[in-house]
Design a protein that fits this description.
Blueprint: E1 5-8, E2 11-14, H1 25-29, E3 32-40, E4 43-44, H2 47-61, H3 69-82, E5 88-95, E6 112-119, E7 131-137, H4 152-163, E8 168-173, E9 176-180, E10 184-189, E11 192-195, H5 206-218, E12 221-224, H6 229-233, E13 237-242, E14 246-253, E15 256-257, H7 265-282
Bound molecules: N-(5'-phosphopyridoxyl)-D-alanine.
Amino acid sequence: MSLRTCWLNGSFMAEEHAHVSIFDRGLLFGDGVYEVAAVFNGRLLDADRHLVRLARSQREIGIPAPYDGATLEAMMQEVATRNGITEGLVYLQVTRGAAERDFSFPAEVHPTAFAYARAKKLSDDPNASGVKVHPVPDIRWQRCDIKSTAMLAQVMAKQAARESGAFEAIMHENGLVTEGGSSNMWIVRDGVAYTRPTSSDILAGITRDVIFDVADEVGVKVVRRAFTLEQAYAADECLLTSATSFVLPVTQIGQHQVGGGAPGPITKRLRDGYLARAARLTA
Ligand code: PDD
């Protein structure tokens, strides 16, 4: 891994100088929140929406916001630019900072905030030919709407997925699909796209949100309704969305081939529509 320029608590520095305390609550308790925004054509994509969600996550768990959205957006763009990223992502994390280990909040909170960038192929993603996902029970807590760094359940889910040769985990609870390990899941049936309604059971994905608009633009009807794993197996198409994958066709779920094992037309329309919008916004 080459040494990058990252940002920690207000300063840009070389990766090798970016250190946090062993008493940081992000490390001790997973007491932190984060965002991942895509970089396309060298420009941040939908950073404003990601920062609104970050502010909400912080509010929900009571971590004060040391920087405003405009400052963070400019910083994230600079992290991408300084590292010469044309396609990739910027990761931003805010924790409740360092304090003597005690579960309840410290009297005085000094949040730790840091960001780094990394290159990743987004427009020409080889996974656009279709990926396999691996079903696992969703064993997470009940506030999945908060983009928390406490993610042991997803770490285990995605490791199980990798061990089964899958790209992503598809999590389910009470028979219904919740979401991917780090993505939102969709199915298509008779030309209509279905995705689980927003609730504390899932993360309200920014990409998912944008796809609601893209679907309108490209003439795809969307219904916000939960679906079962069996409905996903039998669907015409299945797809996943995330800031780091955009829109990818899911052509296999466990042992079940979906839609004949090839990317379907609705998925292609949504992916192309999403890429066209990204190109427009970053031109
Ligand atoms: N994860 N659901 C979960 C559990 C996620 O972790 C993510 C994103 C999404 C998709 O949200 P968005 O469209 O805003 O990226 C849904 C990021 C990419 C990650 O953890 O790397």
